Amino acid sequence: MLPVGAVVVDFDGTACAHDVAEHLLDAFAEEDWAAYDEAVDRREIGLWTAIQIQDRMLHADRQTMIGFALEHCSMDPTFAPFCGWLGSQDVPVSIASDGFGFYIEPLLEREGLGNLPVITNRQRWGAEARPGGIDFVSSHPVCVGCGTCKMQAVEQGRARHGAVAFIGEGQSDRYGALYADIVFAKDALPGYCEEDGVPYLRWETFDDIRSVLEDPATRLPGPVAPVTCPGWTLPPA
């Protein structure tokens, strides 16, 4: 029996080997989209605000962008076997992403993973099937710091299945990590975990994570779980 009852995985740069949102912005945005990521890093704006601005920069239609993602963005080759192994252990996997969202299901379906639950933002499509705004269907009911509330995704997983492992790599994963029972972090996420006092394990492939989860000696650090998420942001009065 594994030490966790559910696993929550970030998508861009984690389940997918590429940050698909950044690739799409590089290919189809003429403006300086990266300035808004930098503003998020400086905590001048939240992810909720940044993604709405960046969405308006995408100058291409849905079919073109999904085709681009399928051609240029491969999944981590160890992710599908990892999901298969967890399925054999009756441990559910869900994707939690604060990206544009529309490219996730096509990329999962290509890997035979179309059955995975996806917690993300919903893209609206306007004239000529071009981006027409973002619906934050997986947001917190009050906080507007993030588009997709990964804290909420983790807490819902715990309520349904028990202890939760969280796997991520970036700034959007910070608040999910705070509330998980065990955290696997790479790239920028270890720095945020250290800042927040979150115990974490470094990983490179999902095989690394499997080795930890199937080891009988593995013990869960447990969530830091501050009463108020440090990303808490109220809407303007």
Question: What is the compact description of this entry?
Answer:
By secondary structure, this protein is an alpha/beta fold.
Uncertain spans: none
Question: In the CATH hierarchy, what is the class of the domain at 6-18 and 76-124 and 133-213?
Answer: Alpha Beta
The CATH superfamily name of the domain at 6-18 and 76-124 and 133-213 is HAD superfamily/HAD-like
Q: Name the average pLDDT.
A: 96
**SSE order in H/E notation?**
EHHHHHEHEEEHEHEHEH
What would you report as the Rg, rounded to the nearest angstrom? 17 Å
Helices, by number, come to 10
Residue fraction in strands: 5-15%
CATH architecture of the domain at 6-18 and 76-124 and 133-213: 3-Layer(aba) Sandwich
Please describe the biggest sheet, giving its number of strands, its sense, and whether it closes into a barrel. Answer: 6 strands, parallel
CATH topology of the domain at 6-18 and 76-124 and 133-213: Rossmann fold
Structural class, please? Answer: alpha/beta
Enumerate the strands of the largest sheet in spatial order, edge to edge or round the barrel: 3-2-1-6-7-8
Helix residue percentage:
25-40%
